[in-house]
Amino acid sequence: MSVRVHWFSTLVPRTRSKQAETEVPWHEGLTPRAILRAEGFSEVDMEAIMAVRGDTQTDLDAPLADGDRLEFLVSIQGGAEG
Known about the structure:
- By secondary structure, the protein is of the alpha+beta class.
- It is built from 2 helices and 5 strands, in the order E-E-H-H-E-E-E.
- It has a single domain, classed as Phosphatidylinositol 3-kinase Catalytic Subunit, Chain A, domain 1 (Ubiquitin-like (UB roll)).
- The chain has a 5-stranded mixed β-sheet, with no helix packed on it.
- Strand 3 and strand 4 form a beta hairpin.
- The longest helix is centred in the middle third of the chain and has 7 residues.
């Protein structure tokens, strides 16, 4: 029972595992936020990280299911003025 996690390339060096893909043991109540905490990310860091379960963006506090595929991406904003 596990959740497969793919990390956006700029996040990999900041994770404890230092791996682009990890497998996290699933348990009742596991959330994307809990995975981020376990990998060493702070609440401030999490404000710029987006979780995608399957092909759909998901809330960091949404419970995960055994067998889920999760991606963590960096939320980038910006644009040109004028």
